[in-house]
Amino acid sequence: MTDRDAIQTVRDNVVTIAQRWERDGFDSAMLQEATAMATLVDNCLLADCPLPGPAITIELRVQRERLGHEIQRAEQQGSHSSLIGACRDLVAILDHELRLCA
To answer: How far is 46 from 65, CA to CA, in rounded Å?
Structure first.
């Protein structure tokens, strides 16, 4: 698997999960999926798939922290709208990365 393939896989997983959340609403599986998504991002940040530049790495780290915060908020408040927003922002960063890898 190339670096681009790994980034594309993470992006596709985030999109699929976020679309299901929007369609089906909040449930307990959502938090497990969000945690798994965060782990995928962590793997990218740990250089399992080297990123195209330091600016992207910083953006992805910031977004990963936001994702973690939104997971905690969803656990505490049972609300998922901010978590979906964090996923959309994560997809935008990953899309930008994919363009740089092309």
So the answer is: 14
